[in-house]
Structures are given as C-alpha cells and as structure tokens.
C-alpha cells in the first residue's frame, strides 16, 4: 500500500498546471515534497533487495550498483528540498544537480550488469555494433537539437555550458545501456522491463525539456508535462524494485526480446538520414542533395542485403542440408519453447521420435546415394502427413522427430503416428531398385510432470525402443512401464525381493533310452502386472545388464531345486539352464558356476548351459577359453534355437558344443509338409555329422514326435510331453515316473 500511496502522491504535481495555484517557489517546493517519498522508498527497497538472500551473485552486483544510483537520487531530492527553504534563487548547477548527474553512470553500469542470455564472442561483437549504431543515430539527433546549440550559447558561463552539455551525453549512455539490455534478452523480465521503462521516460523528459528551451525558448515550470514524465519515471523505478523484491527465486525465465527489437539498428540509420535530409533541406540538389540521396539509397540496399543474408544464414543454421527439414538445433529450440507454454487440459502437445528400420543394410548394400534417396523420401512423407504448425526435423543419421503442439486430443497424435507408419512403408524407387523401409515411432506427451526437454525426449526414446523390441514397424505411446532405467531398477529389485520364480519343462528321450533332462525357465511374478513371461523382460534385461544378477539367481535356484530330484528307476536327471551372451562375456563366469555347484552340491556332469547362436557367431579367444574350461569340468554346452540366426557352421567344430536344440519353427509342419520334413531332417543329419546330441523344441503332437525319432533326433521337448511347471510339481512327476520314454506313446 505504501508503494501505491507514494505513487498516488505524485499526482499532486499536476495541481499547479491545472489550477494555476502558487508562486514559483511554492510550486517547486511542492514538487520536491511529493518526489521525496518515492525516491527515498526506492532507495530503501533497493537496499532491502540487495541485503536479502536468494539473488544470484551476478544479479546482486547489478542491483547493488543500481542502489548507489537510487541513494544519490534520494539525497539529491532531499538536498533540493532543503534548498527550497533557504532564501534566494538556487544556483545552476546546484548540489542536487551534480548529485543527479553523478547517479547516471551508476544507472548505466547497473543496467549493463543485469544478467541476460549467454552469448558467444561473435554474438557479443554484433550486439556491440548494433548498440553503437542506435546510439550514433541518437547522437546525431541530440547533437543537432541539444548539444550543438548549447555549446554555441553566446556569453554563457563555461561551467554552465559544460554541465548542460553533459546531461544529454549521459542520456546517450543511458540509451546505450537500455538498447544493450533489450538486445541481450534480459532475465527477470518484468522488473527489468519496468526499470527500462523508467529510464526511457527519464531520457525523453530530459531531452524534451532541454530541446524546448534551446530550440524554442520555452521554459517548463514544475507541474507541466516534462515533470509528469519525471514523476512517471520515478514511480516506474519504484515499481521495478518492489516487483523484484517480491519475486521468488533468482530470476524468471528468459525473454525472447531479440526478435522484437532487432529492427532498432535499422531504425537508427533511418533516423540519421532523415535528420541529414532535414538539415540539408535548404541546400541545392547539386552537389549535397544528390550525395545525400545516393547515400540513402546505398545504405538502404546494404540493409536489405544484410536482412536477406541474415534470413538465409538463419535458414542454413536450422535446416538439415540433405532433407530440408529442421535440424537438431531448431528442434531443440522449438521443443524448449513448447515446454515453456502453460499447461492446458484441453490442449495436448507431443513429440514423435522416428527411427528407420532396415536402413543400414540399404546403405551398406547400395551405397550412400541410395540411403540419401530414402532419407529424402522420408522427409517428403513427413511433410505430407503432418499438419500446418507442426514441425518435422532430422536429428541425424536415420533418426527423425516430429513436434505436435496444441492438439485437441491425444488421439490426434496417435492418428498422425499411425499415418506416418503407413506412409513410411511405401517403397522408394532408386534407379532399378525398389527400396523398402519401415519406421519405429515413439510418442511422448507433454504434461505437468514433464521436467525438461531431456526427459520428454527420453520418454519418446523409451517408447521407440519398445517398438523395436516388439518387432518394429509400428508406433507406441510412452508409459512409465517403458522407462528403461525404471524397469532396470525394477528387475534388479525383483531379484532382491524374491519376485522371480522358476518353472521347469521336461526334455524326454524319443527312442526309449536312458536319461531325462529338464529346462529351467524363469518367470517374473510382478506385484502389479502379475506373472510375466520371459519375452516381457529378458530382452530389456540383456540391454541394461540386469541379466547378470538374474542369470546367476536362475542358475543357483535351479541347481538348488534339482539336486534332490530322482526317478523310480534311478535315471539321471540333467538340468539345462539358459546363459545369456552378456554372462558369457563376464570374466568371472567360470568362478561363479564353480561357486554355485559347490554351494548347492549339484553335479557338474549333469548341468547343461544353453547358449544362443549370437554367442557362437564370432566368439573371441576369452569366450572360447571359458567354454572350454566349463566343458572340461563336465558341463554340457548346448546351442539353443539353432537355425534361426547366422551362426557359421565352422564354429560348431571349434567350440566345445555338445548339444544342438532345433528351433520349433523347423518342427511345426513336419508331419504334413514333405519340404519341412526334409529341412528338419537335414538339420538332424548335420548335427549328427558333428557328433552332437539333438533336441527338437516345440513338439506338440505324437506324429511330430514320431517323425523326429524316425529321422534320428534323440530328444524332444514340447507341450505334447508336458507344459512348464513349478519345481515341486515336476519333482512329483519325476518321482511318479510320469516323465520318460513312455510319454512318446501319448
């Protein structure tokens, strides 16, 4: 209330101008009396602002310098008020005048020190040039209207002339500081805006007051409109300090001022030439007028050329040269701007991350020209699908992004994602080639919980990789369950919290020989999502490294349960446990397995480790050495899902493999399709040629079991024999003799 009350008190200065009340001394005294509370309160609040905590050091330094200016102005006003009560006319310049002038350099320094957006060296040089252009234009005007006439005043006291000329020069410094501040994109926008407005109003008041006197001989009395401008400036300065004092935190967000004030240098050039033309209005067109006109035309052409060059430089700086889409820098800038918009329940903004599937093989097989043709076609498809106002960009390589601001519903974003999936399936014609790609798209929506651009991009990225894990070629919207880091923590906690469980599936002898095996299969009994199959978490565990503790737990728990299993006839029960590629690359794998076997008492010669084909694709020396050591311990090595990958047959000879498991895809249909039968038989013969045991996965009928036995496959596994079951259930089944060669008869 005190702030607004003191501001209202300033309105008293209009009374003399409206009513004609009072002598010159009375009016001057009343003017100083109503100004004093405002200037003193500004100084008091400024001191409080500087002394309170919470300001960043750079901003605190700026307000400290400004506080010196506020104090000088307050002392000047009080000095002027005291002089009003002394006899005689005050001298010019008086002590208060010197104090006002002394305050101006501190105002300039404080404005320049206010924190603003960071700039590199080139940007700072350009900012300085722009500011000097504006000040030079203003200097020409003030020289013609103020400084020049003041210096030519006949018979005046040199001290008076020097002081009178100093005021407009200092106003130019204030103008320089204001322009620099505007072009630097200041922080704490409202407070700085009020302060800048206060300084602007003061400069206008100073200039008009002096110009009216030196050009037209008009002397304004207190209560006239220049004094109203000074009053407005004083009140705006008070509001600036008051607002900054009430503000929480160090600074408010950065303002985008550069685009709105970038015209100022060009406006200063126009002002300068207009002034030259005005002064030369009485000159003949030859020679001065033509030269001025030519200078104006040349400068105008240079300005137009620079504007076009700046626009082109901006376009090149934010555009991907190959596709013409926005580049990573512009996408990041627009994304930051999108996050700054206030959240609205009826409007939804989203980012789509797009990664091309099967792009690398095209580049490798047909060269970069073919790859570039695909990328250009993708860019055209993006432009064709997105709405006006949306932004498509290329982040690099075969990664793209689409920004969808202000959509009426989330369904709109999903429909755009689906249309993009379909559009990107269209083959690309390159010469005689028909190049086909697809896209995996992750969608993340902006909401009140989104902290920053990095989090939003991470969400979209998690959704995109979930698409890739699920088979590629479609889109998915981010949900917290897709957060890789969170899921990784969940998986690791699952081991500690006992959420993992084991099921076991028998592997039986198809030809009635001795021996039976069981495969350990891990499940995740999630406290919220229920029982999760391996497909829901194993691939993620491989990516994050959580497979290491999970794999160790599976091995230990499987051995612990299986060590006591037996059959009525005393047949040996082998235990088969899956080992991931990450586990095989661990230097401590052999020691871990030795420790588990010693701890559980499970015999090494009844343990089989199942590896995927990716492990044996190109094994290094350390991997071969580890597997050989395990084989020497009596542990069997099995290749799982054989035939589905790209393993070279030569590695079957060099690696210590003892068992091949034929993937279920080769078993399905062997009892009805002669070609399928022939392929499966070839795989069996291949395994036998390498003296390996063969296990057929996915046997679901008695006829399939008969066919596999007929072609020489010794072991089988599948729903025809038994579904995966808990350890106790399997122990009971083994003890009853329900698993064995007799199951082939089913």
From TrEMBL:
It comes from the Bacteria. Residues 484-738 form the EAL domain. Pfam families: EAL, GGDEF. Signal peptide: none annotated. The keyword Protein biosynthesis does not apply. Keywords: Membrane, Transmembrane, Transmembrane helix. InterPro entries: Biofilm_reg_signaling, EAL_dom, EAL_sf, GGDEF_dom, Nucleotide_cyclase, Rev_trsase/Diguanyl_cyclase. The chain crosses the membrane at residues 33-51, 63-86, 98-115, 127-147, 159-183, 190-212, 224-241, 261-280, 286-304. Residues 347-480 form the GGDEF domain. The keyword Membrane applies. This is Diguanylate cyclase/phosphodiesterase. It comes from Actinoplanes palleronii.
